[in-house]
Design the sequence.
């Protein structure tokens, strides 16, 4: 029912408003025209049509997504026959890229653990998950027991690094050679960098470099602390392997290694502008440099020219023979150098930087570590000028600081193996030929083993003996990192002199952290080293 109010009460004839009573009455009482009704009906049909098309489009997208996401499963799982029902839970992702987009998105964000957390949420905490990573069907292992089994079982697992990584590090490096080759080369190359005699020989050189470098930094003002520490550790490893102390050569090589490392964990796209393409070019330049050093050493030796009294790793690699009298080829020597010089400075440099930052952020732990170093100096005989290996091995709390930093940082995110035959882990089958990713980060940040895992707390180690597989900073098994003792020695010597004489004042203490290729502040820890 429509109620009409008399127009004279509405004052509808107000001339100021520009309309009359009769006009208003005509508008409000005229019925809707047939034309308007048809227009509204057509509009409703169009709206329903658009809704139907949208629903249909979403349905098609859902079906296409389901089909596309199933392509990897059809390709890699169905050919396994009945064994496919015993695969771990998981998701092989999209064709070609697999789960790499999710991985890179997570590790380029502030929440890298969101990648594996998505597996935990969808499939439960089974400890093993199928995925498609770095171009291969893979199984990710995340529990200490599973990780330890894979790393220590040379009968069922061999190195399984992606082909793209092998192309960068080298086909004759430790990442790709067989168990027997690895055993032989490890024995040859570990003697100059491990053991009491070798470590004692390097203490004096490392001390001298650390002392002079810290003094230099304190006069430089604002520096990228991480960049400078990496240069320091690279200088040390260059001296041990090549007896080189040339600043221009070291800086040029260190830049090439930085480019190489960005490509190791990038998608393997060999096109100009992409990180992997740049990394391949960096490797070519590194190979050219090392080849020229080999040629020069061989020429000098042939001509009977004595170049130095001290033998370095290059001399050892050129002279060593196996049981059949076979010497190493140039390719083998170069690939070993590429690998050792990279691993020998990157991990030590990042660990030193983070240990320094974490101690500065925790005054209680800083003071405790500093007091221990002061006690070392007080107990030293008057005639003794520098550190000894015995003193370093007695630095109990500093050792805890280093171990806690290694756990907290987890420099090596993952290592790769390949199943030689079908293997059962946690009740699931890992098929022959599938890659296995040993995920160190989950072992080091497991709250059941490490209460408040994201908290830096060296004192947690006071009475702690880590359960097997829960602490793997240098790997495990026959392929344990051969340079772990040298790395810890470098870190301990640096922290000893830094704690006694310097402090770090960061420009951006709240700077965001990036996780690829390694965990670091985005500003490379910009700050000032101040003498105290």
Sequence:
């Amino acid at each position: 029912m429509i109620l009409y109010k008399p127009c004279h009460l509405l004052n509808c004839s107000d001339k100021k408003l520009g309309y009359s009573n009769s006009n208003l009455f005509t508008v409000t009482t005229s019925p809707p025209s047939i034309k308007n009704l048809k227009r509204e009906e057509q509009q409703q049909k169009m709206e329903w049509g658009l809704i139907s098309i949208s629903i249909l489009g979403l349905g098609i997208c859902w079906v296409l997504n389901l089909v596309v996401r199933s392509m990897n499963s059809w390709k890699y799982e169905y050919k396994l026959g009945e064994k496919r029902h015993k695969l771990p839970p998981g998701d092989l992702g999209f064709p070609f890229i697999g789960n790499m987009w999710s991985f890179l998105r997570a590790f380029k964000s502030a929440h890298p653990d969101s990648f594996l957390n998505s597996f935990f949420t969808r499939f439960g905490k089974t400890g093993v998950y199928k995925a498609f990573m770095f171009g291969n069907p893979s199984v990710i292992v995340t529990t200490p027991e599973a990780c330890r089994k894979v790393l220590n079982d040379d009968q069922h697992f061999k190195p399984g690094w992606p082909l793209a990584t092998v192309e960068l590090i080298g086909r004759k490096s430790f990442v790709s050679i067989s168990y027997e080759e690895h055993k032989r080369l490890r024995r040859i190359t570990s003697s100059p960098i491990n053991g009491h005699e070798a470590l004692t020989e390097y203490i004096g050189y490392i001390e001298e470099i650390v002392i002079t470098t810290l003094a230099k930094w304190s006069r430089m003002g604002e520096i990228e602390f991480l960049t400078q520490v990496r240069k320091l550790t690279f200088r040390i490893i260059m001296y041990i392997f090549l007896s080189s102390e040339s600043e221009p050569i070291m800086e040029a090589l260190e830049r090439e290694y930085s480019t190489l490392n960005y490509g190791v964990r990038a998608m393997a796209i060999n096109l100009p502008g992409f990180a992997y393409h740049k990394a391949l070019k960096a490797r070519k330049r590194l190979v050219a440099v090392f080849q020229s050093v080999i040629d020069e050493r061989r020429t000098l030796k042939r001509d009977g020219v004595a170049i130095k009294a001290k033998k370095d790793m290059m001399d050892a690699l050129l002279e060593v023979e196996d049981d059949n009298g076979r010497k190493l080829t140039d390719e083998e020597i170069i690939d070993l150098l590429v690998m050792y010089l990279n691993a020998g400075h990157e991990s030590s440099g990042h660990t030193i930087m983070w240990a320094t930052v974490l101690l500065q952020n925790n005054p209680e732990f800083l003071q405790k570590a500093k007091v221990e170093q002061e006690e070392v100096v007080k107990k030293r005989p008057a005639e003794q000028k520098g550190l000894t290996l015995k003193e370093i091995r007695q630095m109990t709390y500093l050792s805890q600081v280093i171990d806690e930093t290694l756990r907290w940082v987890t420099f090596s995110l993952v290592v790769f193996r390949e199943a030689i035959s079908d293997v059962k882990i946690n009740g699931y089958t890992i098929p022959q030929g599938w890659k296995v990713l040993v995920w160190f980060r989950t072992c080091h940040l497991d709250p059941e083993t490490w209460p408040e895992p994201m908290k830096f707390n060296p004192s947690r180690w006071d009475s702690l003996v880590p359960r097997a597989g829960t602490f793997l900073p240098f790997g495990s098994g026959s392929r344990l990192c051969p340079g772990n003792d040298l790395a810890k020695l470098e870190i301990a010597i640096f922290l000893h002199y830094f704690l006694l004489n310097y402090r770090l004042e960061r420009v951006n203490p709240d700077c965001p952290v990036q996780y690829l290729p390694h965990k670091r502040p985005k500003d490379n820890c910009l700050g000032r080293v101040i003498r105290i």
Observations:
- The mean pLDDT is 88.
- Residues 388 and 410 are 28 Å apart (CA to CA).
